[in-house]
Amino acid sequence: MTYKFAHRASQLKENIIKEVLKVTEDTDMISFAGGLPAAELFPVEQLKAVCSEVLTVSGEQALQYSSSFGYLKLREQIVARMSKIGIVTNTKNIMITTGSQQALDLTGKVFIDEGDEIICERPTYLAAIDAFKAYSPNFVEVSMDEDGMLMDELENTLREHPKTKYIYTIPDFQNPTGRTLSLQRRKQMVKLANEYDVIIIEDNPYGAIRFTGKSLPSIKQFDSEHRVIYLSTFSKIFSPGLRLGWICADETIIEKYAEQKQASDLNTDTLTQYIVAKYLEMFDLDEHIANIKKTYLLRREKMLQSLEQYFSKEIKHTLPEGGLFIWLELPESVDAMILFKECLTEKVAFVPGEAFYTNHPQKNTLRLNYSNMNEEDIELGVSRIAKVLMEHYPNK
């Protein structure tokens, strides 16, 4: 039998995500690979009460089809939460998605024609690359430093690529590097987007998880021409298993997203939307986020201390002020994919950096996640990676 797959299916080769998912199934593995929240912090007991309340009071509605835009009450609650971070909007500008991954996929459906150019950070989120790649764009990468995307390079890139559809950015605790785009660069990005007439996709799943430093306004707050599309999710601040995210954009754009969503899944799980809305009514999500931040800060500190203790000084790493990830740059002779496979035999895993590049990957890089392992396992896991590195690259 010959399977005649569509081109978009054929071009999505087996990638590191499958390897990461396999790793998470091994209970003996110390995994710094996935972006998994700490499962022990999920509000299980509170959700038992919430689910009972939803099914008792609103069971018939919660088990029915619902609007493609999402449950109105939940959209109202999202509007209220966004106002706390300085984004003034209304329910007509909000659409609920099945996780932020669906928002990325719908972005590709709404905006990308084959051969279109889209600009992203170098490196960038690997699942965003896969979501956009299905629609056959040409990726154009812009370099970063510790303050995020370089604006001079962005301007040159926009000048050289006048048909760019949009700029994709993760400004807060970027995945994979953990870096944060500076205030001045946020303003400059919007200025350049206005000047060159391009859209900005601001992907912000981690912004609420800040441990240190000063909170910065979102790029959306500087949006004077309705060209910033803001994506976020409940996955990192509440529960990824509930698969709830949202898009905030101009009403005309939201209508286009809703049309594509109707062709995809009609509506995001109604019961889940009712559950999250009821949780926000009955309990304090900000208190829950505060508990998450306390735990993640301790784990970030342990990972940074362990990197300093077990790794040589020539190995560079980022210093995230929040989020879930630390980015390592190894000596140029080290291939992190080979190191990854060698580390699996020592029961420790990470994500090789090459997965986060759209063009010309920097193979001596890797991403570590600190949210999903306790402090003891973090130190043990880092020591195992260092041991493998020294065994196979003794001068490193």
Features:
13 helices; 14 strands; alpha/beta; 396 residues; eight-stranded mixed beta sheet
What does this structure look like?
The chain has 396 residues and is an alpha/beta fold. The protein has helices at 7-10, 16-24, 44-62, 72-84, 99-111, 126-133, 151-160, 183-196, 251-264, 270-282, 285-310, 336-344, 375-392, and strands spanning 30-31, 94-97, 117-122, 138-145, 148-149, 164-169, 199-203, 228-233, 245-248, 316-317, 325-329, 348-349, 351-352, 365-369. It has an 8-stranded mixed sheet with strand order 2-9-8-7-6-3-4-5, with helices on both faces. A 4-stranded antiparallel sheet has the order 10-11-14-13, covered by helices on one side. A two-stranded parallel sheet has the order 1-12. Helix 6 (126-133) links the parallel strand 3 (117-122) and strand 4 (138-145). The mean pLDDT is 95.
Q: What general form does the structure show?
A: globular
Rg, Å, rounded: 21 Å
Please count the beta strands (DSSP E, at least 2 residues each). Answer: 14
**Low-pLDDT ranges:** none
Spatial strand sequence of the major β-sheet: 2-9-8-7-6-3-4-5
Mean pLDDT: 95
- Beta-strand level of the residues, as a percent range? 5-15%
User: Roughly how much helix do the residues carry, as a percent range?
Assistant: 40-55%
Calculate the terminal CA-CA distance, rounded to whole Å: 50 Å
Structural class: alpha/beta
The helix count comes to 13
Biggest sheet layout = 8 strands, mixed
Question: What is the chain-wise order of helices and strands?
Answer: HHEHHEHEHEEHEHEEEHHHEEHEEEH
